[in-house]
Amino acid sequence: MCLILLAWGQHPDYPLVLAANRDEYYRRPTAIAGPWQEHPGIIGGRDLLQGGSWLAMSRNGRFATVTNFRETPSAVEPPRSRGQLVSDFLLDSRSPAAYLAGVEQQGSLYRGFSLLVGDRGSLGYLSNRGGGYRLLEPGLYGVSNALLDTPWPKVVAGKKCLTSLLATSPLDNVGLFKLLADDTPPSLPAGVPANGDLIAGPQAPIFIRTAEYGTRCSTLLWTDQAGGMTMLERSFVPDGRDWSEVRYRFDGS
Known about the structure:
Layout (H helix, E strand, L loop, with lengths): L2 E6 L7 E10 L4 E7 L2 E9 L7 E4 L4 E6 L14 H8 L5 H9 L8 E6 L4 E5 L6 E2 L3 E5 L9 H13 L7 H8 L32 E11 L5 E8 L6 E8 L3
Antiparallel strand pairs: 1-2, 1-10, 2-11, 3-4, 4-5, 5-6, 6-7, 7-8, 8-9, 11-12, 12-13
Helix pairs in contact: 3-4
């Protein structure tokens, strides 16, 4: 159950701060974040099964990230991979609003998703499971495998911690990675029943470790006032206790 936490216009030095975990089956082939061979102006991880990505940025100041929507799969597999939504935006020249408006008309071509896309001036959100696309006002947002800001415990806890970390400058990368590494099972709010593994099960913590499925990488992405964009990513071995780390930066232009 992936997690994306995002602060838009909430820090005087960093217009965008994003912290995200990608949770996936260990057997799914993946390339860690790096320049794409066919498009070296794009940096991000790659899904080697379908060719898309879950989070990537481009030299021209664009970024995109997507999560799956938790639901029973339909009997018929839609024709397009959700990871293509990320790569398509980074290769597109339309504004976030225009791009999302086009995707909204083709939502039935994908399984359920929540998609965030942005450039240096705007940030947009779309799910093909309700609500239509919208540009986001400055604020702090969180999404797991449901609609934006659905108050799953990991989303609520992550947003609270991110709010505290935004009080520091320079950015507290150690604190952000510590947030994303929290494997504590969440406490159920009063009066909220357990809902399968969404709240109370092994996929409920921010950082997941199970025998076959878990957090594959933790990614930080931020922009600065000069227009630069930086990605810092840790990729984990299956037990989640050891990692490799990469860092990339695009200067503003």
